[in-house]
Amino acid sequence: MASVQCFSQENAAESLPKDYLTKEFHAGRRDALRKLMPANSVAVVFAYPERVFSNDVNYVYHPNPDLYYFSGYKETSAVLLIFKEMQHGADGDYNELFFVQSRDPRREQWTGRRLGVEGVKNQLGFAKVYNSEEFAKYAVDLKKYKLFYDNFPIDEGNMKPLFDAFRAKAEVQSIAPGVSQTLGIIAKYGSPRNIDRILDFYAKGKQDDPDFKNNELLQSVISKHDSVSLVAFKAKYSEQFGGVTGYSDFTNELRGVKTAEEMDLMRKTVKISSLAHAEAMRAVKPQMSETELEGIMLYVHKHYGAEDEGYPPIVGAGANGCILHYEENNATQVKNQLVLMDVGAEYHGYSADVTRTFPANGKFTEEQKAIYQLVYDAQEEVFKLCRDGVPYSDLEVKTREVLSAGLIKLGLIKDAKDVGKYYPHGVSHHLGLDVHDKGAYGGPLKENMVITVEPGIYIPAGSDCDKKWWNIGVRIEDDVQIGKDHGILLSGDAPRKWQDVEKTVAEKSVFDMGRFPELK
């Protein structure tokens, strides 16, 4: 029997893309994090656990974006410690320790190559690297540092040994992510004026949830939340969970503003997505299924080197376009209806988020055109605000102002406060290593943030308006780089004006020549 050999990292690298982020980029991000951290502190960044897809098959692994951002590492079973100051250990000085998945020739033959200790040293530029099994016994006293770390996932899976070792070393307590989010929002934004709204949104209906019911800190603020009690709550929260809040603040600040290297990848992933949207417009036929249109977009993504999509593709025809996160994509024919496609490529970890809405038969009806133009007009007005220093909240104010005025003019609503009937979501979010990326959602926009601008109007059947408007769902979503004086539209390769959309749908597609055997 032939022996199983470790697969060569060098030979494998020859056929890989050459535009990955460099080890110097990741080292620079670690240094930027250290500048934000207080004295005598350490940031602890874990890999994500694996997730079961079916029986003994896992989902394709997606790395923790934070761990990738700070290291370039894309595997599971790992934890990275980033120290503020240089430490002096028995085996030399260090300001970072990396415990990574060990190499295993037999497993690698089945599930792919691992970097291992030497690969992480040579390719990612770390000096102090150990197998993850060594973390539990490694002589580092985490109790003497100010710790910054993210929430632990509900299902810890294969990462549980590392989480357990960290809890023991640091003497920290776990907290359910839902409870942690609620506590964090109250601690950051809670005031006597808004606390009832916060609790209504985040805690309503969870009275019997054991995680919510048994958390003393949360119950204390639910039972009493006057100004004095809120001050006491925030002090206690900081004492217990300040490390989680600080970790979130640091990573939001860093990842919210893109570096030049990141912008190269953002431009590429958005361009790939935009070209795919344009090709889907050219290829659409009324007899096509939603799934077939999805497949066309995914093929274009893969053709240009995108490894994945940043989120489950949304392809909704007619009434399905009025469902914000419609993901079934199983209508067998799109017919002569509007098709809403919200699909974004993921290239080297960076996600696009682009939406286009177009008529499958090539022509908007008058009602569809009126709604489309209104959404377009709102987008154009918001684009004017996408510059450094503008309060993020102004984008939402402007969107509601334009949409409400337009809906009143069309007779769909009578009062501006009713705009939420047909515009139920927000207009923008950060974009990057996550499709809903980390970044500051309060305060001003900053140069080199990347955000979406995505107004939409959705009028499902049964709405309180003339039936001629029913089942019209329109969203136009573009990706914008915040500039010093004006925004930079990254997704302009996907037609936006209704006239350009109709023109593109009438064009020939590279997929028009394809003829598949009939499936009987």
UniProtKB/TrEMBL annotation:
Any coiled-coil regions, as ranges: none
Species this protein is from: Mucilaginibacter ginsenosidivorans
Limits of the Aminopeptidase P N-terminal domain: 21-158
SUPFAM superfamilies: Creatinase/aminopeptidase, Creatinase/prolidase N-terminal domain
InterPro entries: Aminopep_P_N, Creatin/AminoP/Spt16_N, Creatinase/aminopeptidase-like, Pept_M24, Peptidase_M24B_aminopep-P_CS, X-Pro_dipept-like
SMART domains assigned to the protein according to its UniProt record, in alphabetical order: AMP_N
Swiss-Prot/TrEMBL catalytic activity: Release of any N-terminal amino acid, including proline, that is linked to proline, even from a dipeptide or tripeptide
Family under the similarity heading: Belongs to the peptidase M24B family.
Cofactor(s) the protein needs: Mn(2+)
GO biological process: proteolysis
Protein's name in the database: Xaa-Pro aminopeptidase
Keyword terms, alphabetized: Hydrolase, Manganese, Metal-binding, Metalloprotease, Protease
One function term, GO molecular function aspect: metalloaminopeptidase activity
Database matches in PROSITE patterns: PROLINE_PEPTIDASE
EC number, UniProt record: 3.4.11.9
Group of enzyme by EC: hydrolase
Keyword presence, RNA-binding: no
Protein origin, superkingdom: Bacteria
